[in-house]
Amino acid sequence: MLCPRRNRRPRIRPYPDVAPTDPRKDAPVTTASDRPPTAADTATVHLPHQATPTHDNIGAPPEPPAPPAGRRGRKLLIAGVTVLALIAGAGVAANWAFQGEVPRGVSVLGADLGGLSRAAAAAALREHLAADQKLTAPVQVRIDGAGKTATVKPADVGLVVDVEATVDAAAKGRPELFGERTVTPVIAVDQDLLDAALRKAAGKFGTAMRKPAVVFDGVTPRAVHPEPGRDLEPARSAEALRAGWLGGGTVTVPLVEVHPVTTAAEVDQLLETVARPAVSGPVTVTSERGTLSIPPAAIAQSLVLTADKTGKIEPRIDDKKLRAAVAAPLGKLEAQARDASFTFAGGKPKIVAGTEGITLDLAAAAPQLLTAVKSTSDRTVEAALTKAEPKLTTADLEKLGVTEKVSTFTTKFTGGLSSSRSQNIVQAAKQVRGALVLPGKIFSLNKHTGERSYKQGYKDAPVILNGKLVPGVGGGVSQFTTTLFNATYYAGLEDVEHKPHSYYFDRYPAVIESTIFYPDLDFRFKNDSPHGVLLDTKWTSNSITVSVWSTKVWDKVTTEYSPRRNITSPQTITLPDGPNCIATGGLPGFTQDAFRLFHRDGKVVKREKFTWKYDAEPNYVCGGAESAD
After folding, report:
1. C-alpha pair distances (Å), 395 with each of 127, 398, 402, 532
2. pLDDT for 56-71, tens place per residue?
3. Rounded to whole angstroms, how far apart are CA atoms 541 and 422?
4. Cβ contacts of residue 207 below 8 Å, gap of 6+?
5. CB 219 within 8 A of CB 300
6. pLDDT digits (tens, 9 = 90+) for 230-278
7. pLDDT of residue 557
8. Which pTM was predicted?
9. Confidence (pLDDT) at 48
10. pLDDT value at position 179?
């Protein structure tokens, strides 16, 4: 059954759906359809007033016909997909390029660091550099204008690729999507080490600048004006080496003109404002223990107006030079600290406690003294007194292990204590008794006694000079030296310097004996033990004994001798008679070895060989006169 068809009113399309008019015709353009139009579809529709063409449209160029809806949509879809693809591709490329802290495409000295973190890039660069032998090869350096060349090793002057700084440089800048960015490595060098190496290798070059100064001729000041020179400048040398190192070949560093920091005018000003007032009169130093007057001569000796290596003058008071210049009056105000020491009581070492000293603190007062010497009116300075601690305390000595007699040695002499030779032996023994040698230190007999002269109580006695016995001050001290040498020898201490006599004397052990002659011949030994070494001496009318107190390191030390060999006979020589002729009976010459054996736990654990060749002592005859003893 068919439903009755309702009467439908024509549909009116909203304004946005109004069919566009054809600009070439007044008729409206209808849309395409697959069915023929019906009465409803073709109902008359009145366009809004504003859509009606007016005379303003006459002559306007026709718009191209709109493409069919289906084709236009497909094109828009394709374009949108393409744009999205490009955006996505760009995002992927950007993500790839910026991956890591070092952008892609970055390399240093052929090492690809792109896309790595800073830590990974640093590790990769270090590995790459380690394989490059050129970076450790010596570098030839030419000093321009000096005609000098030098070879420096990179390791000696701190010449390296600064990996961290280079990675920092590599991490900066933009990435290279389709190329490579090469980063120049950052080079480091220690300019002071480089400067020292160049000067050592090249020797003298250039011309030294004359440093400015104000010097004193007595108490009269005199200006020394500066003059420029030509020299290396450490910063310029380092810059040249950094720039030319990786290029290979010889690196040229420049000589530059160097000028002292202080000018001639400034030197003249120092002369007038500092030097002349300084020596215009004494300076008074007050303290709780009294007053010290520093005369102009002492001021001139201690006022420093010389330039440093850059040519700069910084006036100052040298407290050590001042102390030396006023030593005598200063001694009345001060009390010297006394170190703890050893003495001998009952034949054994005993510690004597040290005492504090009192010192005028001239070092602290030096700035005030400098101000005072510049003044012509207020020239008084107050200085503090400070306590001076002893260098060695009782506790220090107790730790040294001076507890037992390690060795002792005695030699005999003739003539009694009244002879000059015997008195010289005893005088040396008195000076050495109580000498303390700390672990690792070297004892020098010449340094300890000083020159053995008449002033010290030494007398004339026979000495060997130019192969013959002649009178000389201190004769006989060689016997004390031999005794001391043997005591330290059998204590197992290290022999540093000794020299046997030219001729053999039967009062000494062969080979292990020593002469001495100030200042050319010395006897020295080193305390190579971990304990302190204390020397004790004793004497009688016919003997001298030296003992070493410490803690035993060796169970014992002994000597083995080889047979004597290459024995030679003496010849007879007649000398002019007189006080300088000392007759001798002559002694044979020979060569012999002595072996020092170190014993521990019943075994010989070390051997030392000593060898000496003795000349035959001539039979000296003094012109037929009676021979001396």
Report:
1. 55, 5, 12, 13
2. 443 444 555 555 555 5
3. 8
4. 229, 230, 231
5. yes
6. 999 999 999 999 999 998 889 999 999 989 999 999 999 999 999 999 9
7. 98
8. 0.57
9. 41
10. 63
Residue 164 is predicted with a pLDDT of 95
Q: 620 is written with which tokens? A: 């000296």
Residues 431 and 351: their CA atoms lie apart, in Å, by 19
Distances (CA, A) of 265 to 163, 208, 310, 322: 48, 20, 17, 28
CA gap 349, 592 in Å, rounded: 38
- CA–CA gap between residue 549 and residue 566 (Å, rounded): 39
- Stretches in the chain below the pLDDT threshold 70: 1-99, 173-179, 466-469, 624-629
Neighbours of 228 (CB within 10 A): 13
In this prediction, residue 402 carries a pLDDT of 97
Count the Cβ atoms, other than its own, within 10 Å of residue 348: 14
Q: Shortest CA distance to 558 belongs to which of 603, 505, 513?
A: 603
Q: What is the DSSP letter of 3?
A: P
Rounded CA gap, 514 and 501, in Å? 6
CA triplet 193, 197, 201: central angle to 5 degrees?
175
Using DSSP bridges, classify how beta strands 619-622 and 572-575 pair: parallel, antiparallel or unpaired.
parallel
How far is the C-alpha of 604 from the C-alpha of 290, rounded, in Å?
64
What secondary structure letter does DSSP report for 563?
Answer: P
Q: What is the phi/psi pair of residue 592, to 5°?
A: -150, 155
Cβ neighbors of 123 (< 8 A, separation 6 or more) are none
Closest CA to 490 of 614, 405, 402: 405
Residue 513 corresponds to which amino acid?
E
Q: Name, in order, each residue with C-beta under 8 angstroms of 511's C-beta and a sequence gap of 6 or more.
A: 500, 561, 592, 593, 594, 610, 611, 612
The predicted pLDDT at position 620 comes to: 81
Cα separation, 571 vs 588, whole angstroms: 9
Alpha helices in 131-233 (DSSP H): 154-157, 163-171, 191-202
Compute the distance between CA of residue 622 and CA of residue 580 in angstroms, rounded to an integer: 9
One-letter amino acid identity for 14? P
> What confidence score (pLDDT) does residue 29 get?
42
Q: Specify the pLDDT at position 65.
A: 55
In eight-state DSSP terms, residue 346 is T
Question: At residue 409, what is the residue type?
Answer: F
Encoded tokens for 337: 């600290």
- Measured between alpha carbons, how far is 278 from 303 in angstroms, rounded to an integer? 8
**C-alpha distances in Å from residue 486, one per residue of 66, 546, 548:** 126, 9, 10
Cα 239 to Cα 8: distance, rounded to the nearest angstrom: 99
288 alpha carbon, distance to own chain's centre: 42
Helices (H), 393-548: 394-398, 420-432, 445-449, 477-490
Distance in angstroms (rounded) separating the CA atoms of residues 583 and 53 = 158
Q: How far apart are CA 471 and CA 476, in angstroms?
A: 11
- Rounded to an integer, what distance in angstroms lies between the CA atom of residue 151 and that of residue 141? 6
- DSSP helix/strand/coil, 484: helix
Which sign does the torsion angle of CA 269, 272, 277, 279 carry? positive
In the block, residue with structure tokens 């005598």: 328
- Residue type, position 45, single letter: V
Domain 264-391 class? alpha beta
Domains of the chain: which residue ranges? 106-202, 264-391, 400-622
Please compute, for residue 178, the number of CA atoms within 13 A of its CA located in the half-sphere on the CB side.
0
Q: For 413-476, where are the E strands, in sequence order?
A: 436-437, 442-444, 460-465, 468-473
C-alpha 48: how far from chain center: 101
